[in-house]
Write a structure and sequence with these properties.
Blueprint: E1 2-4, E2 12-16, H1 26-42, E3 49-51, H2 56-63, H3 82-90, E4 95-98, H4 101-108, E5 113-118, H5 119-125, E6 133-138, H6 172-189
Parallel strand pairs: 2-3, 4-5, 5-6
Antiparallel strand pairs: 1-2
Organism: Raineyella fluvialis
Region (Disordered): 43-63
GO cellular component, one term: cytosol
Length: 194
């Protein structure tokens, strides 16, 4: 997630979301978010960073040294309860995440989102409106290793066992452009909620 922290100190914050259960698409989402985080950090914008989930602290450790002000990255990885996550999301101007509980929760509390969905989930779970909720979809429908029809898993196809990125075609720069667009819209509307 890229967001403004609506805390007393008014820090600008990059927030990276994670969910305990991993999906095949998640690794691609991680790459897109890492690219955007590193780019923004190098430019000195939207620091420090916060994250939740057990693996996120290690990722932030890799980004902090390339930031404009090393040592300013703040992580809340593994420290937030669901209630804390609600508070974090409610104070954000925008959230970037894969098709996960935190992205849906951000939408529920009124935070604009940029969601990264596999096409099968886009049809069933993506937000309907695009003014405050942008989507990017991965269109991989067959395993690139063996050709298994991934749209039929659990129906007429069995899991082939290959770990492939279903959202590999989602371009980080497109995701980041939508985030900046949502943030710009928030700024023109007035101060952040909180």
């Amino acid at each position: 997630m890229l967001a403004r922290w609506a805390a007393e100190d008014g820090w600008e914050v990059l927030v990276i979301g994670d969910e305990a259960d991993r999906t095949l698409a998640e690794e691609v989402v991680r790459g897109a978010l890492d690219d955007g985080l590193a780019e923004a950090a190098r430019a000195g914008r939207r620091e420090p960073a916060a994250a939740w989930g057990p693996d996120e602290g290690r990722r932030l450790d890799r980004v902090d040294p390339v930031s404009a002000a090393p040592g300013t990255v703040r992580s809340v990885a593994g420290q937030l309860s669901v209630r804390g996550l609600v508070g974090l999301l409610a104070g954000c101007d925008a959230m970037v995440g894969n098709d996960s509980g935190p992205r849906h929760l951000a939408q529920a509390v009124g935070t604009p989102t940029v969601g990264i969905f596999w096409i099968g989930n886009t049809v069933m779970a993506a937000p309907l409106g695009r003014a405050e909720h942008r989507i990017h979809s991965g269109w991989t429908t067959h395993c690139p290793v063996c050709g298994t029809d991934l749209t039929q898993l659990g129906w007429t196809a069995t899991d082939c066992g290959h770990v492939v990125g279903l959202n590999d075609a989602v371009r980080p720069q497109d995701v980041y452009a939508d985030v900046l667009d949502l943030l710009e819209a928030r700024v023109s509307e007035g101060p952040a909620r909180g």
